[in-house]
Amino acid sequence: MYIFEEGFYHYVKLYIMVKFMINVPPRNSLEVVHLLQFLYRRGSACTCSVVPGSAVCFFAGFGDFNPPYYRPVKVVNRVGITGEIRDVNGNLVTTYTTTLQALTQAFMWAPPGTLVQCQILDVGDCECGVVTDPVTGEQLIWSQVKVCKEIQVKALVKLLVPSYGFCELDPCSPPPQPFVCPPDEPLYPPQRCQSSPVITLLEPGLVCSIPDVDVTLTRKVDNTTVSITKKTNATGAATFAEVGGFAGGLDVISFTDPTTTKTINFPVPLEFTDTGGTVHDSTTVCTITFQRTAVGATTFNAFIDTIQSATPVDP
């Protein structure tokens, strides 16, 4: 099943310049220049039209992550046109057929594992004209078409359908294999949080924040490592607006405890067990809170999306 992850409506103007050729062979090359310059000065006109059904766009690759998981999505736009040149008296001088093509890109949320689809929504009228190259003196035809398209980033997803007690299945226990199955890395691309993901540092107690601490998010994707550092505010919160969420199995959160000067490193897990023994998925996490276990202690309790992990973080 496919789910719409993010859409982008993009407007692009395709433009091309081609040499002006005439249908009747002239006696020499100088006659070509003189004839075309004469037609241009006398008011020769160009008209063109889009070949029906020729407008297409297709995915041409990704750019580098900056930061993950935003990256340029490259799309090729292509449309065929036909045109003609007539002199001031309406006599046909020449016809031409060509293809306008351009590479454009949109900066979108596109984690590893996502698919890109491009669809042409509308095509404007073809416009053209005749100009003279100021260097070579050649007559040139310029043509352009305005194209509106939609770019979608999609991903495979799983749907969880609650049974409400009508159908209770036994837990899935795969037999041992000579290789890791399922693999340790994420099977599905991370989703985006509704708001910017936040790391919060707290001391023991109800309202005891740890401000002015540099918190670093380190993410490695496709052999590229990116680090983003934010400082906690008066409430102990560090907001990472550049990323759509903390990615389990990929992200490491680190900071230096101002009380003990020890460095805390917390790899965000793919899943974790809470204090009651329940396992939770943490492929995408929106909030992580580190609260010191006791006054002066070196360990922290980790709350992943407000749920306390059973394993304290120990430097």
Estimate the strand proportion.
Answer: over 45%
Shape: elongated
- Beta strand count: 20
Roughly what is the average pLDDT, rounded to an integer?
A: 78
Q: Bin the helical content.
A: under 10%
Q: Biggest sheet: strands, sense, closure?
A: 5 strands, mixed
Q: Alpha-carbon distance between the termini? A: 42 Å
Number of domains: 2
pLDDT < 50 runs, ≥5 residues = 1-42
SSE pattern, N- to C-terminal: EHEEEEEEEEEEEEEEEEEEE
- Count of helices? 1
Structural class: mainly beta
What is the topology, as strand order, of the major beta sheet? 11-8-18-19-20
Radius of gyration: 30 Å
Describe the structure.
The longest helix is centred in the first third of the chain and has 13 residues. Strand 9 and strand 10 form a beta hairpin. A 5-stranded mixed β-sheet has the order 11-8-18-19-20, with no helix packed on it. Strands 2, 3, 4 and 5 form a 4-stranded antiparallel β-sheet that branches. The two termini are 42 Å apart. Helices cover 4% and strands 51% of the residues. It has 2 domains: 155 residues, no CATH class; 111 residues, Immunoglobulin-like (Sandwich), CATH 2.60.40. The chain is elongated and about 95 Å long. The relative contact order is 0.15. The chain is built from 1 helix and 20 strands. It is mainly beta and 315 residues long.
